[in-house]
Amino acid sequence: MSAVNYWMIVPAAGSGQRFDAELAKQFHSIGDKLVADYTLGRLLNIPSLKKILVPCDPKSEYWTRVSAAADKRVELIEGGAERVHSVLKGLRALSDIAQSDDWILVHDMARPCITSADINKLIDQLQGHPVGGILATSISDTLKTIAPKKTVSKKNAPQTIIEKTLDRSDCRAAQTPQMFRYGLLVRALETMLAEQQVPTDEASAIEYLGKQAMVVEGRRDNIKITHREDLIIAQAIMGYQEAEQCV
Questions:
Q1: How many CB atoms lie within 10 A of CB 247?
Q2: Run of H or E including 83
Q3: 53 neighbors 90 (Cβ within 8 angstroms)
Q4: Would you state the pLDDT for residue 60?
């Protein structure tokens, strides 16, 4: 049996309007570099990755400021309307060179604090697994399910009430990379879209097929840039990681 290959897809076509209506979050700065430069730079530290595909707007002038995008293993391709479409475009771009049993790792461009140790841990623990799995962390906050409260007067603002408290020991916060077999991931995403369902992440598409993905415990500092203050938090995290030499 020939050795499998590892391919990375980093969707970056979203406009990030919740973060900044004018500038996608991957082009915001952390210190003297852009978020995208940090993320791609860390992924390039993994020598087993044969290629890193970035579904995005390749014509954006900001990519000329991302030095890591010039690496020979990085390829910018046209992205899709939503994350799932971008990931599928990345998968189809690999159709002539990837084998069905090859591994696909999908990572959020907005997670610049990912460490080589966590990626290697994911790869090592999933070796030989027929499906794949994800990085995830335990949850320390108490989780509540909520619902809108009915109001009698139209003048009253909508209110939200707590329905119940969840057992957080049964919950995990999903992170990226998420890593699955090439052929299985293509089938999972295409099946959901054909049935007019939109997966929230790659693992949810795998679940839709009735397959079980593994959970690999990741670092809690692998945060996703979602709000502006996250840029400050990410800079502090990366400073700590560099001091700890775990990048």
A1: 15
A2: helix 83-93
A3: yes
A4: 95
Which residues face 132 on adjacent strands?
180
- What is the C-alpha separation between 117 and 134, in angstroms, rounded? 14
CA–CA gap between residue 10 and residue 27 (Å, rounded):
14
Mapped onto helix, strand or coil, the DSSP state of residue 217 is strand
CB atoms within 10 A of CB 221: 19
pLDDT digits (tens, 9 = 90+) for 217-241: 999 999 999 999 999 999 999 999 9
Please give the Cα distance from 2 to 202 (Å, whole number).
Answer: 26
Q: Indicate the DSSP class of residue 143.
A: P
By residue count, the chain amounts to: 247
pTM: 0.92
β-strands 103-106, 173-181 pairing: antiparallel
Structure token pair of residue 106: 């999908």
Find residue 214's DSSP bridge partners: 133
**Please, which residues have CB within 8 angstroms of residue 126's CB and are 6 or more apart in sequence?**
103, 132, 133, 179, 214, 216
Write down all domains in the chain, each with its CATH number in brackets: 6-136+172-244 (3.90.550.10)
d(C-alpha 57, C-alpha 59), whole Å: 5
Average pLDDT per block of 10 residues along the chain, 247 residues long: 88 71 88 96 98 97 96 98 97 97 98 98 96 96 84 64 90 96 98 96 98 97 95 96 84
CA distance 70 to 67: 6
Reading the block at residue 247, the tokens are 């990048």
The span from the CA of 46 to the CA of 111, in Å, is: 16
Reduced to 3 states, what is the DSSP secondary structure of residue 59? coil
The rounded distance, in Å, linking the Cα atoms of 35 and 230 is: 11
